[in-house]
Amino acid sequence: MSETALALAEPDEPDVMTGAEVAASGKPAGHREDTILYLDGVSVSFDGFKAINNLSFLLREGEMRAVIGPNGAGKTTMMDIITGKTRPDEGEVFFNGNVDLTRHDEPAIATMGIGRKFQKPTVFEGHTVDDNLALALSGVRSIFASLAHRRTIEEERRIVEILETTRLSHLRHTSAASLSHGQKQWLEIGMLLAQSPKVLLVDEPVAGMTDAETAETARLLRDIARSHSVVVVEHDMGFVRDLGVKVTCLHEGSVLSEGTIDHVSADPKVIEVYLGR
Amino acid sequence: MITGYFLRQGLNRWIIASLVVILAIGILVPAANLLLPAGHPLHVPSYIVALFGKYLCYALLALSLDLVWGYVGILSLGHGAFFALGGYAMGMYLMRQIGTRGVYGDPTLPDFMVFLNWKELPWFWSGFDQFWFAAIMVMLAPGLLAFVFGWFAFRSRVTGVYLSIITQAMTYALMLAFFRNDMGFGGNNGLTDFKDILGYSIQSDQTRAALFLSSAVALALGVLLVGALGASRYGKLMVAVRDAEDRTRFLGYRPEFVKLFAFTASAVMAGIAGALYVPQVGIINPGEFAPANSIEIVIWTAVGGRGTIIGPIIGAILVNAGKSAFTGLFPEYWLFALGALFIAVTLFLPKGIVGTAMHGWDALQRLRAARRHEEGRHDGPAASQPEAAE
Amino acid sequence: MNVIKRMTVTRSIAALFAVLAVLLSPSMATAQDSDVALRQAIAGLGAEKGYARLREAINVVAQTGDPRAARVLGALTEGDVYRRADDGAVVIVSGRGQQLTLHDPVTGEAIGTAPKSALDKVRVNNSVRRSVRAALGGLTLAAGDPDIRMTAARTLIATPDPDSLAAIEKAISDEEDDAVRDALENARAGAILFSGADPETRIAAIETIRNMGGQQALSLLARMPASPDQGVLQAAEDAAASVQKRLQYWGLGQNIWYGVSLGSVLLLAAIGLAITFGVMGVINMAHGEMVMLGAYTTFTVQEVMRTSFPGLLDWSLPIALPLAFLVAGSVGFALERGVIRFLYGRPLETLLATWGVSLVLQQSVRTLFGPSNREVSNPSFMSGAFQLGEISVTWNRLYIVVFALVVFAVLLYAINRTSLGLRMRAVTQNRRMAAAMGIRTPWVDALTFALGSGIAGIAGVALSQIDNVSPNLGQGYIIDSFMVVVFGGVGNLWGTLIAALSLGVANKFLEPFAGAVLGKILVLVFIILFIQRRPRGLFALKGRAVDA
């Protein structure tokens, strides 16, 4: 994993990084410009409690990564920071190698191409599945454009396509409120796809799902990972193993261990954190 | 162009039906008042015209609240302020029409200014002798207040009850301000003793009939606007913001602008309602800003059914008709009835009359569809519905 | 200007007169001997022609040293002394119109009526009034009661008159009470300012006045006749500046006190809400009506005491306190069980339903007690005021400040140290966990709500002392209370305390610049802007828990 040190990197990107801010320690290995997501030396605390502590994390274009960790490890807070919901107290967060995410808010980050699925499935329950996807489709975002907008054939095609990918075609005109828990999770993933993001952040996609649904979701995510970069936060080890991707284990706001699932689950530090206390 | 826009949005038949009913009432009631002789069984007495004209304004006001509460989920407890501002703008025009017919006979200064020993018209009264100017202010004043207020509130993500409470504080502060004599709006007594509007006596049956018709037309336009907004992609966005604001934000929308647009549009509607209301009741005073008034608007909307278009209209008319009847028969008990209504509606009828009826209707439709499905499976899955319909 | 000055003079004489009138009645019998002398002297008031003669006659009356002379002298300045045309007798007259009632000049008893035409008015001018004032001052300075002498001395300070110098000097030498002597010395200094005394004496007098301080000193220095002497002028200017400065500090103190006093009222009104809204998250729009119920409970208790146990009237408030807590608390309990518990998790609906409850409560009270204001009197230990330097502190306000702080402390204790408080906090922090640990969460909800409502009732007892008790009482407080709780930060009792006090003080500091109403509006606007900046209040909880 180790490559050139970072402090020497960036003269070719004037607008973003100020050299002084490069943390002296905990440098992630790798060039920033090779990454789609780049977090370095990020810390954030709430009322003195350090939710994220000098966290460094990077994701390459097209990579799928699973993030595991016990409760309170900072998984959700990390997503909050990437999506602009929480501002880090210190540290750098870059998207696509050169966009400083700490300077943008949620809608701006979302339109750049970072989609997020919440831990608790969050869909528009007052709308049908079709409307949910239509609202998520990339494109019209301004108020005045949305006043006059009519659905195009291209949009229709994308919706049909996403409905097929998420296996919700037969529920197209059903109200989202009457979907099952698993179907809501899929709808939300479908909405993420409709956004045509570059990165998908997926928070606990299989919580509360049956085994069959879990397997189906793993298939869906692997499908998606073929054309997107994906970060999956999950507790379910079987599911993570199913995904078969590199795993990052967080603990108390920093990276505890990183590697294949076998490597991580054999790591004595990880075992201690999960079982030792 | 505009009609085309509305038509493209595919208004559903309920809206078209209610438009027809409102316009029919708007024409038939004044006609029955003016054209039929007093003894005729279908003659509508003038006081009924005035009373129902008032209800129409209330209906428009309730509809404006519905736009923000029913669709975007903003419970405004300050909509009375927008209504009153529109009313004051119209009242200022009417005051300036009095001219020398006031008690003091001053050609420019309204009576209360003469009484306060003011020598000249304050700057913010200038222009109100022109109807067109007043008409613009009727929309601009509430719209601007809503825009500025909403700009701060929505951007700093004040939501839910916090927002409700500060809207209430807003109207309360305005009430205190308008009670002051040196604000220049007639203080305690407000604006009254109007003589005529656009040159026609405000007391005459013909003027009242015209005002009634105007109120009905305004209400119909309101229905059209809310219906078209609701059916558009923006309408879906409003509901999306209501149901899951965070989700819209992470989809790349700016919910604060969605809210701001609805809030401002709604305030303008409320202002127009107030402007039509004032000439029909003949007075506007700071009492209209009272927080209690604003909360009453909420109950009209709740009774009829928020999030529906005809619900608030029905609610406003029913509650106010009830109020008129009650205060006539047992004035003591109106507040008991109103209080009980608040409790009963929230506990037992949260969707309101129309909402509950629609829910029942939907359930019936689903049942029927399911039965049909049972009978003929070979029909295949239900044909895809027209996409923009409600 | 002149009119105003004369009015204050007349008023202060009237005050003196009132004090004397109280004193007069018991001393009547013992003064029988001097009765004749006094009556003779009084007769002189009617006999003489011309103002100079009248002044002499006044001095004759004053020289009798009889306190009863004050009645006729007081009436003289009011223009109520007449001479009966037929016998020349001097009478005091009351009533208006053509037929006037006559009173004996010494005893004040009515002695019949007479038409106006049968009476001649004894006319007075300003110089006569001055003589009367000096005479009255002299009379009361000799009174037995030090309080009366004090009042007299104060009057003399307010109305400096070189003519009374002699009387003051005499009084100073006779005076045994230190406080009164100090006041008399101030009065002497005041009189010297207005006399033709030599510069040195006047500078010394200015020094005395400067030490006296206060608004009165300032007005004396401003009114004193211009002196040709530079030293005197300079001294007066310096003194005025120094007095002014001191007054500013006192004014600051006064504003803070008013602010704290208003803040404590806000605190009382809001503290119950800090529980129901802040801790439970229930929007109770009927909170103001709980306050109103407490006030009406106080009124009822007072009426019962007045009619059945007049001896316990002063105990009305202590008796009303627990009753108000129970009344408002049980209404709150019923409200939670009957309405609110069905609406948990739907704050906007809760808001509407409780507003409905508030309307019902208001109308019930209106039906029971009538729509008009009800009078709740201050018990004797709470009426009156005392002076703290230049700050006038009314006892009822002081009691309310102390009371508000006591209620706050008790509540803090209840929440942090009692078992109900522990369960309350457990339920609000994690309802399901609390339920799993065997806490009856519905019961805790109901009790918590009852506690908040009961405290609102207690607030009503206090507020009945300073506000009109009417069915609309609660309406006036509800918005303010919400502002305080939201400003302070929801779920934070200390925040509520600080918010209440700072809003109270801010309000009072804005008032002088903006006026009471505009000040209030400014504070409201400020809070609205503040909430938009920091939606979670001054002392916000941060982090994930808030979003959950």
Automatic annotation (TrEMBL), chain B:
<feature type="transmembrane region" description="Helical">
    <location>
        <begin position="42"/>
        <end position="61"/>
    </location>
</feature>
<feature type="transmembrane region" description="Helical">
    <location>
        <begin position="12"/>
        <end position="36"/>
    </location>
</feature>
<feature type="transmembrane region" description="Helical">
    <location>
        <begin position="257"/>
        <end position="277"/>
    </location>
</feature>
<feature type="transmembrane region" description="Helical">
    <location>
        <begin position="131"/>
        <end position="154"/>
    </location>
</feature>
<dbReference type="InterPro" id="IPR001851">
    <property type="entry name" value="ABC_transp_permease"/>
</dbReference>
<dbReference type="InterPro" id="IPR017778">
    <property type="entry name" value="ABC_transptr_urea_perm_UrtC"/>
</dbReference>
<feature type="transmembrane region" description="Helical">
    <location>
        <begin position="209"/>
        <end position="232"/>
    </location>
</feature>
<keyword id="KW-0812">Transmembrane</keyword>
<keyword id="KW-1003">Cell membrane</keyword>
<keyword id="KW-0472">Membrane</keyword>
<feature type="transmembrane region" description="Helical">
    <location>
        <begin position="161"/>
        <end position="179"/>
    </location>
</feature>
<keyword id="KW-1133">Transmembrane helix</keyword>
<dbReference type="InterPro" id="IPR043428">
    <property type="entry name" value="LivM-like"/>
</dbReference>
<feature type="transmembrane region" description="Helical">
    <location>
        <begin position="68"/>
        <end position="90"/>
    </location>
</feature>
<dbReference type="Pfam" id="PF02653">
    <property type="entry name" value="BPD_transp_2"/>
</dbReference>
<feature type="transmembrane region" description="Helical">
    <location>
        <begin position="297"/>
        <end position="321"/>
    </location>
</feature>
<feature type="transmembrane region" description="Helical">
    <location>
        <begin position="333"/>
        <end position="354"/>
    </location>
</feature>
<protein>
    <submittedName>
        <fullName>Urea ABC transporter permease subunit UrtC</fullName>
    </submittedName>
</protein>
